[in-house]
Amino acid sequence: MDILRPPTVWIDGRCYRTITPVVSSTSNYAEEDSYADDPYNDDVNCGMEEDVDNFQIEKLLNGKCRTSLAVANVYHSYLIGSRGATKKRIESETYTQIKFPNRGQGGDVEIIGKDVKTVRQARIKLELLVAQARRKQAFTHFLCIPFNKPNIQEKFIEFKEKVLETCGGCREVTKDLFQNPTHLHLTITVLTLVDDREREEACENLMEWKRSELALSEPMRVELRGIEYMNDDPGCVHVLYAKVNPLSWADSLQELANSLLNRFVKAGLVNCQYERVKLHVTVMNSKFVVDRDDSCNPDEKVDKTERESFDARQIIEEYGEFYFGELEVNEIHMSLRYSSTSDRFYTATSKITLEC
């Protein structure tokens, strides 16, 4: 870890440095007897001490203070810990009382303490634990720009046919590596939204971003031209993608994507691992082979980590500048993973149009 750039997490518009790396024995937080140890030590550092909290702490008649924290039920066991160990430790360290809704019931987590400082400390500890637990959950949604226009699909099918015809003898190059033409898209970021409240919050942030930060001066046109690979060895590749190149210059797709990602990071809905969005449209991926094998054999357990790389050297040499077409970027979707609509694209939980 770079000590000058420690890992951080955004929660409710505040940035925190995490001190102790996380070691978790399980990724299933819903199981009653499968709890992870508390991953954070006592040192919780706020990036800006003068930040105003985005939550309220009320004064009770008995002089104590109280705040409530909306936490999806799936994370409750992670905050409680084995035999309540994590909950008891935070209560002891912050001199607070933490109350959870009864099992199977909805409602917020309640924190009561002797003053504002202790209540705030307890809340921050719980929020950091939720943020870490979210990282262990499989993503459920993703923000994306559809690239499945008919002209793009037609050129993609041509690319697939040519690659299989001329490069089909290369190691592990098969038809199952290729993206579904109707699923072509540019991913801005992935999301883990585990309940209705989180889904509504994500939709609200997407709409608010459009109202407050989106301002195009002309239609945003791009082209898909050329292919590139993700790693540093073209003979051992897992992902090949089409490069996204701008055709209009008044507005930057890179800046637009970065702005939207930043909005969701500060809202605590995304744990950012990169400083900017990588603009790419995946055309071949070894993961597709594993997923399709799994769907064809539902009774057979498949290790999703066992992915065979493929040799892309000849593909890159012959089709490195392949032209997939151009399109106008006019929509951003919040799509549901593993879903499909009548046009065979992913189901949109929410979407916005990009207008000049």
Report what the structure shows.
The chain is an alpha+beta fold and 356 residues long. The protein folds into two domains: 8-135, 2-Layer Sandwich (Ribosomal Protein S8, Chain: A, domain 1), CATH 3.30.1370; 141-353, Alpha-Beta Complex (Cyclic Phosphodiesterase, Chain: A). The protein is built from eight helices and 15 strands. The protein has helices at 76-80, 85-94, 116-136, 150-167, 196-213, 253-266, 286-296, 313-319; strands spanning 8-11, 14-17, 45-46, 58-59, 65-69, 96-99, 109-113, 141-146, 185-191, 220-229, 239-246, 280-285, 323-329, 331-336, 348-353. A hairpin with a 2-residue loop joins strand 1 (8-11) and strand 2 (14-17). Helix 2 packs antiparallel against helix 3. It is elongated.
Number of domain modules: 2
CATH-assigned homologous superfamily of the largest domain: Cyclic phosphodiesterase
> Briefly, what CATH class of the largest domain?
Alpha Beta
CATH topology term of the largest domain = Cyclic Phosphodiesterase, Chain: A
Order of helices and strands: EEEEEHHEEHEHEHEEHEHHEEE
Q: Considering DSSP H and I runs of 4 or more, what fraction of the residues is helical?
A: 25-40%
Strand order of the largest sheet: 4-5-7-6
- Which structural class should the secondary elements be placed in? alpha+beta
- Strand percentage lies at 15-25%
CATH architecture tag of the largest domain: Alpha-Beta Complex
Number of strands: 15
End-to-end distance = 43 Å
Low-pLDDT segments, ≥5 res: 19-52, 295-304
CA radius of gyration:
23 Å
